[in-house]
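User: Structure tokens for this complex, please. No commentary.
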Amino acid sequence: MSPPRILYCRCAYAKVIDDAVKDEVLARLAESGAAFDAVADLCELAARNDRALDRLRKETPVRIAACYPRAVRWLFHGAGFPLPEDGVEVLNMRESGADEVVARLLDGARPEGSAAPGTGGDA
Amino acid sequence: MTAAGTTPRVRVVLFEGAGSAPLEDGARLDLLKSLLDAGHAVTRPAEGAVVAPADDAPHLVVGRFAPDARARLAAADDLELLDLDDAAGPAAVLPAVEAANARAGATSPGEWKPWFPVIDYDRCTNCMQCLTFCLFDVYGVDGDQKIEVRTESNCKTDCPACSRVCPEAAILFPKYKKGPINGAPVTEEDLKSEAMKADISALLGGDLYRTLRDRSAAARQRFSTERDESKALLERKRCLKELGKTLDIPDEVLMTLPSVEDIEAKAARAKEKLEERRRRSRTLNDGPPKPPPSPDDWGI
Ligand code: SF4
Ligand code: SF4
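Assistant:
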């Protein structure tokens, strides 16, 4: 099975996620060498029914670093791109610390033999 | 709300694999932050790992390319390349994304704070209270007569009032400060306080909606007739504060409620539609089958 895909939501248009948490999660993702998709604000994409949500829901398993799972699930649904029933795990940066979120995001996410950027990894 | 066609925005691909020298950790993070905070989407691929699949969004591939990699990527006609060693470094990326979005005819992100209701259909009973309550026509019904959020951009920023009238705690505003409106799990306690809200509505005269508009109209009336405008404004604010506090409705929303005439016209239209539905169902029982009611029938 492929390693879980990673999606990070920056929640750029509101101060609902502690800056320290979302910055730390992004910093550690960025330096990890893991592949990821990052979006500015899932709410904004949902509000405009942006088809980016369609590509972002495909390819499971996927771990999404955002906010409450109930909110994320129904946002996708409301935009007309419901998330798959299985293989989606939402990590809540409103409630969990950066360590917890990053540990789960990266758990199994970096395939054997891949390397952090700058250490000879390949894309 | 249904999946509609929007012009896809540019997807930035930060390419640090074979044939593209990686950025320094600090520079990479700064670049990611600057793009995300400006509303853009970024993908950082890595060997052997999966990212979201390509779609019809234009791709801007950013990296520090070796000549052979650059030639290989440049051969793909659906990719635009930005070589950070050629350009003015990471600072060149944001203007390049904005220019590519403009060329594609995509809307600029961040023009509107994404504040709108989201329905939890696991909880919703389709009672239509939200549709009746919302004065700004944010809600509608779909072809199956199911409630839906139809006009997100009509929603008044930071106003969660409709979530307060939902008896099932089924309306979320993901950017709201408190649960369960922000999507936090709904507890027994929350449901009790939802019931309390119904009681508040009863205390206010059995019709929260009517109370809101009457108070607003009264306040507006005072505002227009008092000679001392600043005094009138203070009085209006005082009157609305109580309701605003109870329901966490921003003052500016209460202050901009439609006129009594508008509301009455809306109510009359709703009554007409109801009569029409009744007539139709009577005819349905008496005669040959008629088409089901259309979504417009709910369009009060
Ligand atoms: S989904 Fe959650 S984390 Fe993402 S933008 Fe919306 S409120 Fe913020
Ligand atoms: S008020 Fe709540 S339960 Fe009733 S239709 Fe609206 S979202 Fe559904």
